[in-house]
Write a structure and sequence with these properties.
Blueprint lengths: L1 H23 L3 E3 L1 H29 L1 H22 L5 E3 L2 H29 L12
Antiparallel strand pairs: 1-2
Helix pairs in contact: 1-2, 1-4, 2-3, 3-4
Length: 134
């Protein structure tokens, strides 16, 4: 259940970030279909790659966490661009790739800071003041 909620929230955050990036950059075009497919693909790709990046971060410490997050975002965008038609999702230009990656990465860093709090708030059967345990 927690994984499903996390997936839906990540997709919502990613969808907003992709729309923001597309609005800011002329060389990032995104149709509604491209946004929808791109959001789904980007979310799936980054969630699948996250485990690999987390193990690398544990191995190589905090510097890898920062760099790994950027690489994860870039790879997710690259795979999404490759698997989505050019008329629907298209990134063009070195600078556009860099800035879209930075915007989406920064947004996911912010999202990750509140992710567990949001999931705890939407869990069924939990209310303030109730505790579990011995």
């Amino acid at each position: 259940m927690k994984w499903g909620i996390r997936l839906v929230l990540a997709a919502a955050a990613n969808g907003l970030l992709l729309m923001l990036a597309a609005a800011l950059f002329d060389k990032f075009s995104l149709s509604f279909t491209g946004w929808l497919i791109g959001t789904i693909l980007f979310t799936v790709f980054t969630m699948l790659l996250r485990g690999t990046m987390a193990s690398l971060a544990r191995k190589y410490a905090s510097g890898a966490t920062f760099l790994g997050g950027l690489v994860l975002t870039w790879v997710g965008l690259l795979l999404t661009d490759l698997f989505t038609g050019r008329s629907a999702f298209y990134l063009e230009g070195f600078g556009t790739w860099i800035f879209v990656t930075l915007i989406v990465w920064a947004g996911t860093v912010l999202y990750d800071q509140v992710d567990d709090h949001i999931i705890d708030a939407v869990k069924p059967g939990r209310s303030k003041g109730t505790t579990t345990g011995a």
